[in-house]
C-alpha cells in the first residue's frame, strides 16, 4: 500500500485551513465582501455560493489529509489541483478586479500563485513513492453511479461554459454574474464534476466516502445560501427551479454515497 507522504498530507491541511477562512469570509460575510474580501462580490448570493464551495473543499481536504493511503486521498488530490490551477488563471486574467490596495487582495493573489505549484510538487513527490494500491472494495450501487455520471457530466459542461463563455452563461444563470464570478464559480463546478467522474471510474464505495461527505455538505450549504439570499435570484423562474433541483440532487447523492461508504467501511 502506498502511504500518504508527509508533504502531501501537510499540503492538504494547509489548504483546508485556507478553505475554512475563505468560507467564513464568503458565506458568513456575504454582505461585507467590499470590506473583508479580495474583491467586491455582488450579489451576496454569489459570495455565499463561493463560500459553500470553499467549505465543501474544507471537508474534502480534511478527509484527504487524514487518509492513510494515496488511494484514499487521490479522489481529492486531482480535482483540488484543477480548481486551484483554474483559479490562478482566472486571477491573472482579471487581476484588475482585485483590491490590491488591501491585504485581502494581495493575500488571494499570492495564495493562488503558490498553491498550484505546491500541489503539483506534492503530487509528484507522492507518485514517486513505491507501493501498490489496495484492491477495489465494494462497488458503488448502480443508481449512485448513474446519478454521478449525469451530475458529473452536467457540471463539466456547465463549468466549461461558465469558464469560457461567461457572457453566455450570465444569460442562463438564475442570478446576475460578472465575468470574474462566472469563471470563479465555473472553476469549482468543473472541478466537482471531475471529482464525480473520478468516483465513477474508481467504482469503490470506501474511496468515495470523502467526496460523498463533501458532496452532501455542498448541496446543503448551496440550498441554505439560496434560501438566505433568495431575493437575489432573477426573474427566470425556470432557471431558478432547475438550479435548486440540481443542488438538491447533489445533496441526495452525497447523503446516499455517505451511507453506502459507511456500510462499506463496516463490511
Keywords:
267 residues, mainly alpha
What would a concise description of this structure say?
The chain has 267 residues and is mostly helical.
Low-confidence spans: none
- How many angstroms separate the termini? 20 Å
Strand content: under 5%
Total helical elements = 10
Provide the succession of SSEs: HHHHHHHHHH
Could you characterize what this model shows?
The protein has 267 residues and is mainly α. It has one domain. The protein is built from 10 helices and no strands. The mean pLDDT is 93.
Write the layout of secondary structure elements.
Blueprint lengths: L5 H23 L4 H4 L7 H22 L4 H24 L9 H25 L14 H23 L1 H7 L6 H24 L6 H20 L8 H30 L1
Helix pairs in contact: 1-3, 1-5, 3-4, 3-8, 3-9, 4-5, 4-8, 6-7, 6-8, 6-10, 7-8, 9-10
Amino acid at each position: 500500500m502506498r502511504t500518504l507522504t508527509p508533504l502531501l498530507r501537510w499540503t492538504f491541511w494547509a489548504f483546508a485551513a485556507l478553505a475554512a477562512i475563505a468560507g467564513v469570509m464568503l458565506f458568513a460575510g456575504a454582505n461585507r465582501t467590499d470590506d473583508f474580501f479580495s474583491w467586491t462580490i455582488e450579489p451576496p448570493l454569489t459570495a455565499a455560493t463561493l463560500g459553500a464551495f470553499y467549505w465543501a473543499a474544507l471537508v474534502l481536504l480534511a478527509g484527504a489529509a487524514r487518509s492513510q493511503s494515496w488511494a484514499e486521498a487521490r479522489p481529492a488530490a486531482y480535482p483540488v489541483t484543477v480548481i486551484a490551477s483554474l483559479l490562478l488563471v482566472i486571477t491573472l486574467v482579471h487581476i484588475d478586479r482585485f483590491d490590491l490596495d488591501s491585504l485581502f487582495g494581495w493575500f488571494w493573489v499570492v495564495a493562488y500563485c503558490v498553491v498550484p505549484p505546491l500541489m503539483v510538487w506534492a503530487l509528484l513527490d507522492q507518485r514517486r513513492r513505491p507501493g501498490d494500491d489496495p484492491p477495489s472494495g465494494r462497488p458503488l450501487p448502480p443508481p449512485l453511479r448513474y446519478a454521478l455520471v449525469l451530475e458529473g457530466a452536467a457540471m463539466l459542461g456547465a463549468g466549461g461554459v461558465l469558464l469560457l463563455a461567461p457572457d453566455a452563461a450570465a444569460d442562463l444563470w438564475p442570478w446576475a454574474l460578472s465575468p470574474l464570478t462566472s469563471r470563479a464559480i465555473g472553476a469549482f463546478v468543473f472541478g466537482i464534476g471531475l471529482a464525480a467522474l473520478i468516483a465513477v471510474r474508481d467504482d469503490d464505495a470506501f474511496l468515495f466516502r470523502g467526496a460523498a461527505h463533501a458532496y452532501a455538505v455542498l448541496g446543503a450549504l448551496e440550498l441554505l445560501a439560496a434560501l438566505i439570499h433568495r431575493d437575489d435570484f432573477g426573474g427566470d423562474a425556470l432557471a431558478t427551479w432547475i438550479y435548486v433541483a440540481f443542488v438538491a440532487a447533489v445533496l441526495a447523492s452525497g447523503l446516499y454515497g455517505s451511507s453506502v461508504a459507511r456500510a462499506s467501511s463496516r463490511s
